[in-house]
Amino acid sequence: MASAPALLSEPPRDCPDCPRLVAFRARNRAAHGDWHNAPVPSFGAPDPRLLIVGLAPGLQGANRTGRPFTGDYAGDLLYDTLAQFGFATGSYGRSPDDGLILNDCLITNAVRCVPPENKPTTQEIRQCNAYLAALIAGLDRLTVILALGKIAHDAVLRAQGERLSAWPFAHGSLHRLGGLHLADSYHCSRYNTNTRRLTPDMFRAVFAQIAGILASA
């Protein structure tokens, strides 16, 4: 039987917590009845040492497919990099039935429902934080959390009861939060890669740091 934290770590399909997101979800269900159009559950190994936290589902990515970072460019870079470092087995096909398996890794989002224009409000981020806190609490082997972007970074700190000002976000930074390591990366979005704010080499360097931590743990 799942533990209490695990049971509390995924919102229900018709989560009522954020009225703006509920209304947006309803509009998308009416327009695209064959899409997922619900809170996107975490994906990956059940007891991982690495947790990756993104921002929120993309409208035509995870909100459509029902799997984090699946169906848009951000997933292309993320899953390719995970495979390079042994965290993924199989081929990523932009579909939840592609057979991809994550090894020692779990992926989730700071906000589980798709927000309009991919911009959750501060209140929506805070409202969803209880699910992230419960997820982290339920992972007994967790060693490293990778935050993709500042919103994810801040969400992890809130979930751990840490002061945001004590741990500033910076790409490539590593923070020690008690027994956990928090690693920072710019989000692997198309915008960030197109503007060269984040390059594949920069992204791989972050994962090299994480692999080093796990190898010595």
**Whole-number radius of gyration?**
16 Å
Label the structural class. Answer: alpha/beta
Tally of structural domains: 1
Q: What spatial form do the alpha-carbon principal axes imply?
A: globular
The CATH architecture classification is: 3-Layer(aba) Sandwich
Oligomer: single chain
User: What is the number of helices?
Assistant: 8
| Euclidean distance between termini CA atoms | 28 Å
What's the average pLDDT? 95
| CATH superfamily (homologous) name | Uracil-DNA glycosylase-like domain
Q: Main sheet, how many strands, which sense, barrel?
A: 6 strands, mixed
Strand portion, in percent? 5-15%
Helix content: 25-40%
Low-pLDDT windows of residues: 1-7
CATH fold descriptor: Uracil-DNA Glycosylase, subunit E
Read across the widest sheet, the strand sequence of neighbours is: 1-5-2-6-8-7
CATH class: Alpha Beta
What does this structure look like?
The structure is a single chain. The protein is of the alpha/beta class. It has a single domain, classed as Uracil-DNA Glycosylase, subunit E, CATH 3.40.470. Helices cover 38% and strands 14% of the residues. It contains 8 helices and 8 strands, in the order H-H-E-E-H-H-E-E-E-H-E-H-E-E-H-H. The chain has helices spanning 4-8, 19-31, 62-65, 73-84, 122-137, 150-159, 190-194, 200-216, and strands at residues 43-44, 50-54, 88-89, 101-102, 105-109, 144-148, 174-177, 180-185. The chain has a 6-stranded mixed sheet with strand order 1-5-2-6-8-7. Strand 7 and strand 8 (180-185) form a beta hairpin. Helix 5 packs across helix 6 (150-159). The radius of gyration is 16 Å and the shape is globular. The two termini are 28 Å apart. The model is unreliable at 1-7 (pLDDT under 50).
